[in-house]
Amino acid sequence: MWNPRVESLDKESIGHLQLKRLRESLKRAYENIQFYNSALRARGLAPDDIKTLDDLKRLPMISKDDLRKNYPYGLLAVPREECVRVHASSGTTGKPTLVLYTSEDIRNWSEIMCRCLFMSGLRRGDVFQVTPGYGLFTGGLGFHYGGEAIGAMVVPTGTGNTERQIRLMQDLGTTMIAGIASYALHMAEVASEMGIDVRRDLKARKGIFGAEAWSDSMMKKISELWEMDCHDIYGMSEMYGPGVGCSCSRGEGLHIWEDHFIVEVVDPSTDEPLEPEEEGEVVLTSLTKTAMPMLRFRTRDISRILDVRSCDCGRTHKRIARVKGRCDDAFSINGVKVFPGQVEYVLMKHPEVGMNYQLVVEKVGALDQLTVMVEADPSKIGPQAQSLESALFRELRSVLGFQPKVRVLPPMSIERREGKAKRVLDLRK
Ligand code: DLL
Predict the structure, then answer these.
(1) Separation between Cα atoms, residue 200 and residue 296, nearest integer Å
(2) 238 Cα nearest atom in ligand 1
């Protein structure tokens, strides 16, 4: 472990630390941020009313929309002059929102990144290629700071120019890569076009990916393609960036760093907290953020808290299941709710399925129609495109409960994007 004392702290000590930090954060937010001051007063609450961790549920929640309304400096708990960095969310679901950091925030962020990277196998001496974008997106710099603090050699390629990315991997002997999950597949396909076999010609056997929902079967596909030990890292700009939690090698799900965050899962329609193993929306409270404390931030992400006491890896911090998608990702086909992850799970189980897919939704007459566009892997498919189409059709029909159209396409038919993949093209909008 990177920080064994903290990572294996007993539950009771974690609880004490959380309560102490929660009360401090709340007091600072109440005294310095108009939004929290008004929201607490509207509920007749003062910071001293929060006496136990169970009282957390009495606090109001904050949403991305509140960040937009308070753009750019409205949620600062410190004078603007104490901020040393600004990032923005990637804006996949609307106008970007800004987040600000003090130097203490940057130190805390590096610490949690070190824990995640170490958990995923990064060590001093590794050649660590950081492929998410540098700049306003938190991905690049988040991995960068953690990688340097561990003592690895960071290769800050950032996003784009995949051919150069692969040449550098080959020339420098990159041993670990960080990326957006869908990019790992894209890199493998570009490498193959360049005549490079990622398993034979490259040394990257460790990978840490996240920033978008990626199914277990997609993780398996990346692991097999690259012969790679893959880890899932979770986070969002509002909680520093990547690093809120990460998957270890031993247990299911992702450990959430409970000395920095409190994780709850609520029913998104009633906002009521749910029990462990019940699936709902992840709500996070920051405990150490100084510039922009976030109390009960609605992530819109869907997961559940695992009902497990301990983990074979020795870490005691609570685990959540891998994030299945976002509440706002789901779309409806003639009244039936569909999550892109359900479709991905089916697709990625088939080795003949290639590197990209997209769900196209349109109106045909009065009815909604879902077409699953999927690229084939030419090395595996041969003349069996027809049978792949029918197999996918059968499996998807049984998972979704209605009949989608399936179209198997040649490689590279679907647009590649820098950054997070766009899985759903809804032409009804
Ligand atoms: O995506 C931070 C990040 C960068 C995380 C690199 C991991 C790796 P945002 O742009 O603010 O920040 O987007 C946050 O991305 O609420 C989730 O919906 C999604 N997300 C992030 N990590 C995962 C993951 C970064 N491991 C939003 N699994 C979050 C599923 C993820 N979804």
Answers:
(1) 47
(2) 11
Residue 371 to residue 411: CA distance in whole angstroms: 17
Residue 191 alpha carbon to ligand 1 centre in Å: 26
Pocket residues: Cβ below 6 A from ligand 1: 89-90, 132, 138-139, 210-213, 232-237, 241-242, 299, 301, 323, 326
Per CATH, which fold does 1-328 belong to? Rossmann fold (3.40.50)
| Full-model pTM | 0.94
**Ranges of each domain in the chain:** 1-328, 331-426
Of all atoms in ligand 1, which is nearest to the CA of residue 233? 26
- Residue having the nearest C-alpha atom to atom 20 of ligand 1: 211
Q: Residue 77 and residue 375: Cα distance in Å, rounded? A: 49
> 3.40.190.10, 3.30.300.30, 3.30.300.180, 3.40.50.2000: which CATH number matches 331-426?
3.30.300.30
Query: How far apart (Å, rounded) are the C-alpha atoms in residues 259 and 331?
Result: 36
Per-residue pLDDT tens for 239-298?
Answer: 999 999 999 999 899 999 999 999 999 999 999 999 999 999 999 999 999 999 999 999
Q: Which atom of ligand 1 is nearest to the CA of 301?
A: 18
